[in-house]
Amino acid sequence: MVARAGLARLGRLDDVTETLEPVQMLPAPAQGALAVECRAADHRLAAVLAELDDADTRAAVTAERALLAELEAGCSAPVGAIAEVVESIDEEGRVFEELSLRGCVAALDGSDVIRASGVGTSGRARELGLSVAAELFELGARELMWERGKTRARKI
């Protein structure tokens, strides 16, 4: 399995036989997000950079990173997450936006995957990440990650 983006960079998209959707294989939490920093005292530059901030992306990244942190997992852990702001319809037919988060923890060898999801508001993105992480723990993520650590320790 090879990343489509890598084949695109090589000009080999003709070799692509299948593209997996994020629902099939969740990406690493906050995959593709960029962060830009500047000096706190540089108010002019901070104002320019603030225009680059996208509230939906910030909410998605906040939820995904909260899930990762709560699981106490690092960038090499078999953890996936994707959050996005989606439109929903209430009982009266009104359209509103909410934040949807899907997360998973996998065994290092891929033999087992635990998935969980939740929805909330963008303003409570961190809490959504913590909630989905708690559900993953309830479904056995801690034990699955412990087994991963035990396997890794034997190989060292």
Automatic annotation (TrEMBL):
InterPro entries on file: HemC, Porphobilin_deaminase_cofac_BS, Porphobilin_deaminase_N, Porphobilinogen_deaminase_C, Porphobilinogen_deaminase_C_sf
EC number in record: 2.5.1.61
GO cellular component, one term: cytoplasm
Cofactor(s) the protein needs: dipyrromethane
Molecular function per GO: hydroxymethylbilane synthase activity
Signal peptide: none
GO biological process, one term: heme biosynthetic process
Pathway linked to the protein: Porphyrin-containing compound metabolism; protoporphyrin-IX biosynthesis; coproporphyrinogen-III from 5-aminolevulinate: step 2/4
Record domain Porphobilinogen deaminase N-terminal: where: 2-45
Keyword Heme belongs to the record: no
Domain annotation Porphobilinogen deaminase C-terminal: ranges: 60-137
Superkingdom assignment: Bacteria
Reactions mediated catalytically: 4 porphobilinogen + H2O = hydroxymethylbilane + 4 NH4(+)
Entry keywords, A to Z: Porphyrin biosynthesis, Transferase
A UniProt-annotated Pfam family: Porphobil_deamC
Similarity field: Belongs to the HMBS family.
Protein task: Tetrapolymerization of the monopyrrole PBG into the hydroxymethylbilane pre-uroporphyrinogen in several discrete steps.
Protein name: Porphobilinogen deaminase
Higher taxonomy: Bacteria, Bacillati, Actinomycetota, Actinomycetes, Mycobacteriales
